[in-house]
Design a protein that fits this description.
Blueprint lengths: L26 E5 L6 E5 L12 E5 L1 E3 L3 E6 L5 E11 L2 E7 L9 E4 L4 E8 L5 E7 L3 H8 L25 E4 L11 H9 L3 E7 L22 E5 L1 H12 L4 E4 H11 L9 E5 L14 E5 L6 H10 L1 H13 L10 E4 L1
Parallel strand pairs: 1-17, 3-12, 3-14, 4-11, 14-16
Antiparallel strand pairs: 1-2, 5-6, 5-8, 6-7, 7-10, 8-9, 9-10, 12-13, 13-15, 16-17
Helix pairs in contact: 5-6
Length: 341
Amino acid sequence: MKLHDFYYDLPQELIAQDPLLDRTSSRLMHVDRATGDIEHKVFYDIIDYLNEGDCLVINNTKVIPARLFGTREGHEGKVEILLLKRKENDIWETLVKPGKKCKVGTMLIFGDGLLKAEVLEVVEDGNRLIKFYYDGIFEEILDELGQMPLPPYITHELKDKTRYQTVYAKHDGSAAAPTAGLHFTKELLEKIEKKGIVIANVTLHVGLGTFRPVKVENILEHHMHSEFFMIEESEAAKINKAKENGKRVISVGTTSCRTLESAATEDGRIKASSGWTDIFIYPGYKFKLIDGLITNFHLPESTLLMLVSAFAGKENIMAAYEEAVKEKYRFFSFGDAMVLI
């Protein structure tokens, strides 16, 4: 399977730069998985595609303000750090710019010395293991000094940090938002529950590996980075009950999907579990658990586009993306949504 099979032409002006004032007013494209038929709706219509007894699975990870700007000790040049993964206590795997100037032993200063860091090791892909030094509580200092790690295709400044956060975000740890969830409000979730739809929580801390470009023409040679996930006993029970009752499990986002498919058994049940997943889902994959997927519009030639193509059929998805471009849908993190059922 070739990388170029997942290419589509996207005009730059269709990349959403700002979130809409009302989260639920994004457009919603419904794609029928069986026929490829398309309907154009608004996101608050999502409730019409959910039936009583269905289980809606959301990823309650919370994005941390993971981008830090500082200097090298004794130098004036700027250094940018992106926190990727907490290894232990105050040691993090990070992406550092400029990497060449941050050799092992380099000391970094942030916020006039409120936070300091030492480069311990250079690891895979040129990432750095860094140890932080500070007085007080790391999360509070990070909240004060850090910025939200918006993707590079968003060039506008985000004035309200909460808009790159789902309303149900709970567990700190993501370097990027699970963006399908950005369309929900607490009011919409209450309406969904009142209709008799069960909401189950899973956690997957989104790393940048999900968004790394695929650089090999044969996609089977692509290596996914691992991300931490967690499913609690009570939430697994909700998902299994829906399946036992012949109801559907609808995943909100590719991150929830990857979590569920990583933890599912071959007979389509879910186990309470936690660990690391590097699951790579592309056409030909046999889904064990999910029956529906709510997702945003993804980058050309991305692993996320491959995942939705695996779920709804590559021809259906590429035709839907062509339609979305023609109808001027808004793309990527702050863009519009699609529901695949």
